[in-house]
Specification:
The chain is mainly α and 163 residues long. It contains six helices and no strands. The two termini are 19 Å apart.
Length: 163
């Protein structure tokens, strides 16, 4: 049973957490900015090349797809902590510090995705601004990815694990 739980936990992590991490990271690159800013991409934090806005760097359809992936994979990503907790219980590891820290960080990442990233992406699609929201989204995506990177390191190193 442990092998099945571990396989599902790792596979769901790769597919759902990895997919949402990539989608959150790419969203800001493709999300639209206000039309008045499109003439001056340097203001929006884009490249200094004036052709970049007209050459397809900003693509609303791609941004919408990335938002759907972020939201959908985020919902399906609940499998990761649920199966992880079941695995920890099965192995008798629920009291170990690395499990507890991982659960807190996972909750923080999930909360960040549900309460900040998804709503901000939706707002960025509905009401493009000068790029400030996209810079905030880029920062939030970085924090989201960092939280998951720390969880992965904890899963590998397992500080305080009882052998």
């Amino acid at each position: 049973m442990e092998g099945v739980l571990l396989s599902v936990h790792v596979l769901a992590s790769i597919v759902f957490v990895g997919g949402s991490a990539v989608a959150t990271s790419l969203f800001s690159r493709y999300a639209p900015v206000a039309a008045s800013v499109a003439v001056s991409p340097a203001v929006a934090g884009a490249s200094a090349d004036p052709r970049s806005e007209t050459s397809g760097d900003r693509n609303r359809a791609v941004a919408v797809a990335l938002h759907r992936i972020t939201r959908g994979y985020g919902v399906f990503g609940i499998v990761v902590p649920v199966v992880g907790i079941a695995l920890a219980v099965t192995q008798g590891r629920m009291g170990e510090i690395w499990i507890n820290i991982s659960m807190v960080l996972t909750a923080a990442a999930g909360g960040l995705l549900a309460l900040r990233i998804c709503p901000e992406q939706r707002e960025a699609l509905a009401n493009p601004d000068d790029g400030k929201r996209l810079r905030t989204l880029s920062m939030l995506a970085g924090i989201y990815n960092l939280l998951w990177a720390i969880v992965v390191v904890l899963m590998i190193v397992r500080p305080g694990a009882q052998t």
